[in-house]
Design a protein that fits this description.
This protein is α/β, with parallel strands linked by helices. The protein folds into two domains: 16-186, Rossmann fold, CATH 3.40.50.300; 193-308, no CATH class. The protein has nine helices and ten strands. It has a six-stranded mixed β-sheet. Helix 1 (45-54) crosses helix 6, helix 4 (121-131) crosses helix 5 (143-159) and helix 8 (245-267) crosses helix 9. The longest helix is centred in the C-terminal third of the chain and has 23 residues, at 245-267. The termini are far apart.
Length: 314
């Protein structure tokens, strides 16, 4: 079956967590692989499947559970298919309950990864509102009620997942980037998507922050009238903040610490890390530091983006 095209409604995403795949029974060095994509309706499964197809995986959408074992045999034993990705979701109805037991059998002879996509209800309701598509569980209930039922039905699948991604804040490009890094043929040692986030303590600490650093010990450009209209991205403001020895020392020490820590996060199965830098208003110091740390991590080969939560562009 051909893969369905990704819907324009899919993600905007946040954090992701992974579990070690030691339970897979495939022999080391066996490159044959099956990826089973599941998760909440509207969380980005179609986009994920398309990303796998672009990586060279044989892609199948909505394969009946009764055929998965036969399909796994094709992946394991034929020359035509050695890597495949398929979607199994709430459309399977009551047959979905058979998936965990089926996985235990398949994993004995084939490297199998379960990728589960989810998102917060508010984000999913918004996506359904934008596309005006009905939820797969029907029109008889509200979308929010259907999502609650779907989440309960999918819990056994989520519990056996190797990779869980919360797509609440990702966009479709970030989801594709994650899949490319996680499943592509690139450097698996740097298989970690990193966000450097600047914020103002006045507006609260970001809820999804894994690591938080307070940079309010640095001199504040806000008190210099010339710098007040600009952000920490402006060359003059950045130069002023960087002129202090404690700034340069902090950037060096934090960057060295993160370069040391990140491979250990990868080893423990983490796939997405949010590093937050906070100052009073989130406009000057935290912005400049987030930009500088992002550059250093990128130079070390880590996929990293920068987000300025409380700062206008400029």
């Amino acid at each position: 079956m051909p893969a369905k095209r990704a819907s324009k409604s899919v993600p905007t995403i946040s954090r992701s967590t992974t579990r070690r795949q030691s339970r897979n029974g495939a022999r080391p060095g066996n490159q044959r692989e099956l990826v089973i994509i599941s998760g909440m309706s509207g969380a980005g499964k179609a986009s994920a499947l398309k990303a796998f197809e672009d990586l060279g995986y044989y892609a199948v959408d909505n394969l009946p559970i009764g055929l998965i074992e036969n399909f796994a045999e094709l992946v394991r034993d034929t020359l035509e298919i050695d890597r495949a990705a398929l979607v199994v979701d709430i459309r399977e109805g009551s047959r979905l309950d058979k998936l965990p037991e089926l996985l235990r059998s398949i994993r004995q002879s084939l490297r199998t990864t379960v990728l589960f996509l989810e998102a917060k209800d508010d984000a999913l309701v918004r996506r359904y509102s934008e596309t005006r598509r009905p939820h797969p569980l029907g029109r008889q209930k509200s979308v929010k009620s259907s999502l609650h039922s779907e989440r309960e039905r999918l819990k056994p699948v989520r519990d056996v997942a190797d990779v869980v991604i919360d797509t609440t804040k990702f966009n479709v490009h970030e989801l594709r980037s994650f899949i490319n890094e996680r499943f592509g043929a690139g450097n698996r040692d740097h298989n970690l998507l990193i966000s450097c986030v600047s914020f103002g303590f006045r507006q609260g600490v970001p809820e999804d922050a894994d690591l938080v650093f307070d940079v309010r010990f640095l001199p504040n450009p806000h008190f210099i009238p010339e710098f007040r209209p600009y952000t920490g991205r402006h060359p003059k403001v950045a130069k002023y903040i960087r002129s202090f020895p404690q700034t340069r020392e902090f950037i060096k020490r934090i960057s060295d610490l993160l370069v040391y820590l990140l491979p250990h996060y990868v080893e423990e199965g983490k796939s997405y890390l949010t590093i937050a830098f906070g100052c009073t208003g989130g406009k000057h110091r935290s912005v400049m530091i987030a930009e500088e740390v992002k550059k250093r991590l990128a130079k070390s080969g880590f996929p990293v983006k920068v987000v300025h939560r409380d700062s206008p562009v400029g």
